[in-house]
Amino acid sequence: MSHPSFVASAWDTSCVGQPADLSPLELSHLGEHLAHCGALRGPLDQLLAGAAGVQALVAEHVVTVALLATLLVGAVSLVR
Q1: What is the pTM of this model?
Q2: Distance (Å, rounded) from C-alpha 70 to C-alpha 59?
């Protein structure tokens, strides 16, 4: 999802013959960008991240639970 940026980017992806170090202005713009992105993350994003984590955990164990349930049903049918 993209958000419109109100701060014009002042840095390039190449150094064009200049040192590859970050300038203080570039660091300032990066700090502003990170602060802006951090402010956009709220409780809903945390809830969605938690739900994705729970879904991943459950998805990892679906086969194991199905196997254990099958073994349990098989064991119960042998006992009877």
Answers
A1: 0.37
A2: 18
